[in-house]
Amino acid sequence: MDQLNGKCAVVTGAGSGIGQALAHAFAAVGMRVAIADVQADALHDTEAQLRSTGATVIAVTVDVSNANAVHEFAARVEREFDGADVVCNNAGVFAGGLTWDRPVADFEWVMGVNFYGILHGIQAFVPGMIERGRPGHIVNTISAAGLFASAYSAPYTASKFAALGLTECLAGELASAGAPIGVTALCPGAVKTGIASSDRNRPAATATEMSPESEFVDRMLDENTDRGMPPAQAAAMVVDAVRSNRYLQLTGDGYATALRVRVDELLAGDLPSLPPFD
Ligand SMILES: NC(=O)c1ccc[n+]([C@@H]2O[C@H](COP(=O)([O-])OP(=O)(O)OC[C@H]3O[C@@H](n4cnc5c(N)ncnc54)[C@H](O)[C@@H]3O)[C@@H](O)[C@H]2O)c1
Question: Which of 10, 11, 12, 16 to mutate to test the pocket of ligand 1 (most atoms within 8 A of CB)?
Answer without folding.
Answer: 16
